[in-house]
Design brief:
Elements (H helix, E strand, L loop, with lengths): L11 E3 L8 E8 L2 E12 L2 E4 L10 E5 L12 E4 L5 E3 L15 E4 L27 E9 L9 E14 L1 H4 L13 E5 L13 E5 L6 E9 L12 E5 L4 H10 L1
Antiparallel strand pairs: 1-10, 2-3, 2-5, 3-4, 4-8, 5-6, 7-8, 9-10, 9-12, 10-11, 11-14, 12-13, 13-14
Length: 255
C-alpha cells in the first residue's frame, strides 16, 4: 500500500498529502502556463490511466506526479511533457457520447518513472472482477470539470477525497436513475452529499478490498448529471477498469 496510508475518517474533504501516491494531474498549456484539467492514475512506470474525454487534439499536455497542492511547489513533484503520439484513446470511444462507454485512455510517459514515497503505482483489479458492497471506495481529485466546459464546477488547490457508496448495476439502470445510459462496462457510485463533486474526470475510484485492505483502482471518473454531481438518483458514473484489463494489457504490450 501507499507509504502514507489514506485517512479514511475524512469522508469528504482534503486528503492527507501524498496518501494517494498514484494520483496524477493532467494539465494543458494555455497562454504559457499549465492548467489542471483531469485526474489520472499511474499504473506502470511508463503509463498513466485516465479518461478518453479529457483530450482535445489541439492541446498540449503534461502530467504531474507526486502532486498535492496545485498552487505550491513542494519539491517532490515530477512534471512530464506528453508527446501527442503517446496518447492512446480507446478505439471504440466516441467523442461527445459518454453513454456508449469506453471512456478510457492511456498515456505513455517518455521517461521511466522513479518511484518515491510520494509517487507510487496503482494496483488494478483482475479482469472481470466485480465490486461488492463490502468494498470501501473513495473518489479523489482536485475538482470536477465537465466535459466541454472549461470552468470547473468545484475546484480545490489541494487534493480532495470523498467516500462514495457503490451502487449495483440494477439500481443504477432503473428508469428514474441512469436508465439505458449505464452499460455493464461502467460502475455507479455516489452519496447524499455534495462530495462527489470533488472528483475529477479521469481520476480514480479507489476501493479497498475487504480481506487484505489493498487499494485497487476500480473506476475512472467518466460522467455525472448535467444538473450537478449531487443530483438525486444520478450517482457518478465510472469506466469499470476490470472490463478493460485486456485493452490496457494490449496497449502496453504493443507500445
Amino acid at each position: 500500500g501507499p507509504v502514507i496510508e489514506p485517512n479514511t475518517t475524512v469522508t469528504n474533504g482534503e486528503a492527507d498529502p501524498h496518501s494517494w501516491p498514484w494520483q496524477v494531474s493532467l494539465q494543458y498549456e494555455k497562454d504559457g502556463e499549465y492548467i489542471h484539467t483531469c485526474g489520472g492514475s499511474l499504473i506502470h512506470r511508463f503509463w498513466v490511466l485516465t479518461a478518453a474525454h479529457c483530450f482535445l487534439s489541439c492541446r498540449k499536455y503534461r502530467i504531474v506526479l507526486g502532486e498535492h497542492d496545485l498552487s505550491v511547489d513542494e519539491g517532490v513533484e515530477k512534471d512530464i511533457s506528453v508527446n501527442p503520439d503517446d496518447i492512446h484513446i480507446h478505439v471504440n470511444w466516441t467523442h461527445g457520447n459518454l453513454s456508449l462507454g469506453n471512456d478510457i485512455a492511456l498515456i505513455k510517459l517518455p521517461v521511466k518513472t522513479q518511484l518515491t514515497d510520494q509517487i507510487q503505482l496503482a494496483c488494478l483489479p483482475n479482469a472481470g472482477q466485480r465490486l461488492a458492497v463490502a468494498y470501501e471506495c473513495f473518489i479523489t481529485g482536485w475538482g470536477r470539470r465537465t466535459p466541454g466546459v472549461s470552468e470547473p464546477v468545484s475546484v480545490s488547490d489541494k487534493l480532495q477525497q470523498a467516500q462514495l457508496t457503490f451502487e449495483t448495476q440494477n439500481a443504477c439502470s432503473r428508469e428514474k436513475w441512469w436508465g439505458s445510459y449505464i452499460k455493464d462496462t461502467m460502475i455507479c457510485a455516489g452519496n447524499e452529499t455534495k462530495s462527489s463533486c470533488l472528483g475529477d474526470s479521469g481520476g480514480p475510484l479507489n476501493c479497498r478490498r475487504p480481506p487484505d485492505g489493498k487499494w485497487l483502482v476500480h473506476g475512472i471518473t467518466s460522467f455525472f448529471s448535467s444538473n450537478g454531481c449531487n443530483t438525486e438518483k444520478k450517482p457518478t458514473v465510472f469506466t469499470r477498469v476490470s472490463a478493460h484489463i485486456d485493452w490496457i494489457d494490449d496497449i502496453i504490450a504493443s507500445n
